[in-house]
Amino acid sequence: MASSKFNWQDSFKAGVAIPAHPLALTEKRKLDERRQRALTRYYLAAGAGGVAVGVHTTQFQIRDPKIGLYEPVLALTAEELGPHDVIGVAGVCGRTAQAVQEAAIAHRLRYHAALLSMTALAGASVEGYIDHVRAVGEIIPVIGFYLQPAVGGQSLPFEFWRAFAEIESVVGIKIAPFDRYATQEVLRGVAASGRAREIALYTGNDDHIVLDLLSEFQFGGETLRFAGGLLGHWAVWTARAVELQRELRGVVQSHQPIHPKWFLRNAEVTDMNAALFDVAHHFHGCIPGINEILRRQGLLAGRWCLDPAEDLSTGQAEDLDRVTAAYPHLIDDPFVQDNLDGWLS
User: Which of 11, 13, 103, 295 could form a disulfide with 300 if both were Cys (CB 3.0 to 4.6 A apart)?
Assistant: First the structure.
């Protein structure tokens, strides 16, 4: 994966847009290999700096032995990433034995890092969590994942994040609790770890993307910023998302006052996300919402999920119509239509 000259860690620290890769299924809920590859090709063509697969957006059920799609989906994505200079992130979850096994698969397939979910360890001590992280970090570099409680995450205290950031194999953290208090607890823990300059911070707060990427935080004499985003929201309209991330990085690097238009853009992106992630129904339709946009663009044949009960909520389709019409500058339909046939070939 990637050329021999590609320094993925430099790219990761500098900050890139990383979409969380969905799962392409047929109507019979089997892997649609052609469209799975097309999605990866879309993200590459859109200019994404990396791809995260085997994560929440890819559907955690791919690990079910009866489904058995974890390794096949990671392998397909790795093939498409091939020589491209992009960062390959593999989702890793479960208790320690499972997480270690998944990390070994990701390492063998030449992924650069593991996005480590710790939901399966709910209720463990801080020491238990840290032992788990160290075990995975012996195999592959680790990106922490603070998943919001509404979709299975749990609250993790400052003490955990300080200890987590002290681990040498930790290279980054995706901060996605959808909670400003919890977000700053992570940042404070990283600042206290002594490794703030070694750890890349990525927003996963799909409800606060623009302002996360513009904000500066100071704790204990350390200045911290989000380098980029690793987001389910960026699995759709990705060409615009890449442009947005690059523009925001330029704003930060310019050291100029922040123009009021960016506060408006933050509100627009958050409004789009509310429809996409089905906030009105406690995120029930978050994955179907992503899949529905990709279906409308022709990248997916349908919005099917592995769980037949997982579908759009009442009124969600109309809400997606609304935000798509309201914010044409944030969608990339023409780009997709111009390239779709090639991605599907």
Answer: 295
Burial class (CB in 10 A: 0-12, 13-18, 19+), 42: buried
Helix (H, G, I), strand (E, B) or coil at 85: coil
The model's pTM is: 0.96
Distances, alpha carbon 213 to alpha carbons 16, 22, 89, 292, in Å: 11, 23, 20, 27
Residues 6+ apart with CB under 8 A from 183: 175, 177, 205, 212
Least confident of 54-58, 115-119, 162-166: 115-119
Residue 183 and residue 175 in contact, taking contact as beta carbons nearer than 8 Å: yes
Residue keyed to tokens 């847009």? 17
**Helix 286-297 / helix 333-344 crossing angle, nearest 10 deg:** 80
Q: What is the DSSP letter of 233?
A: G
- pLDDT tens digits, residue range 77-136? 999 999 899 999 999 999 999 999 999 999 999 999 999 998 888 888 889 999 999 999
